[in-house]
Known about the structure:
Layout: H1 2-37, H2 54-87, H3 103-131, E1 140-147, E2 150-155, H4 183-187, E3 189-191, E4 194-197, E5 201-208, E6 213-217, E7 222-226, E8 231-238, E9 243-248, E10 261-267, H5 269-286, E11 313-314
Parallel strand pairs: 1-5, 4-10, 8-11
Antiparallel strand pairs: 1-2, 2-3, 5-8, 6-7, 9-10
Amino acid sequence: MIRAMIPSFKKSTLTSGSLISRVVQGIIFLLLIVPAMAEQRAGNIYGLPPCVTVSGEKVDAIFRIIFYLTATVFVLTQGTYIVYLIKYRRRPGVKAHYSHGNNTLEIIWTTLPTIIFLALAIYGNRVWDEIHRPAPENALTIDVSSYQFGWQMRYPGVSGKLSPSDVRAISPQNPFGTDPSDPRTAQDVISPDLVIPVGRPVHVLLHSRDVIHSFYVPEFRLYQDCVPGRTIGWVWFQATRAGDFQLACNQLCGTGHYNMKAPIHILPEEEFQKWLTPRQQKNAAASPPPASPTQADPMAPKAPEKELPLTTTETKPKL
């Protein structure tokens, strides 16, 4: 009977050994092959991506403060824990000592964290106000339109100002909600890429044509939802160095969400003007001139002069 059991025992051993081998091969595949198929990421994969905006540096300062505070508390508490485990471990002939507590220590470790949290809240609120204050007057205004599944940027024409727009007029035929009869509309520069200059404030007007999207650039330390029917007008930043980055939607918006991204090119001011000026001049040359008063019908009633608002823009975030 024992001999009859030996073959089956060997068979089960071989089967389990083969199973373990396959599991090990699968783990090796996951560790070595799958990362090779992932998209390459520049910079430190264990920390934050490089910061390229002035406001982002302020956000990073808060990150660093919280990180060093947390690391210090972790080392102190875990070090104390290990010391007590070793020093007061159970030993023969040593009786346990009961301690009711220490009021002084309890006051210290309750008061100190409270002060730290209040200081962080006050400092963080000040940084928030600095980031969300109105954009400077010399800021470059760019209208950013999000849709399933892409981005479009609208730059001012030769006039230096965007043509007026209204989110209520947004449609597939009029993606920015502009007035087609306004000559400035044809002069606006439309681009699939976000091109901005170094060292100059950039004020972006964010809106969506369909569902909620998000304007997300990790290197800018910037995340802001784009909501249909609203133009978000409090987002602005200033780049500190040139480079190529990526704008991505970080709000699940449909089947093509994974591919909703746009290139970002940060250029020196001279190179930026070389990119923008020819496009402005081309659109200005192609746009029809405004009708002169002599060409208008003298019998036609004069409509009251009324200009569409620039946007139905919210200039301050709601807390």
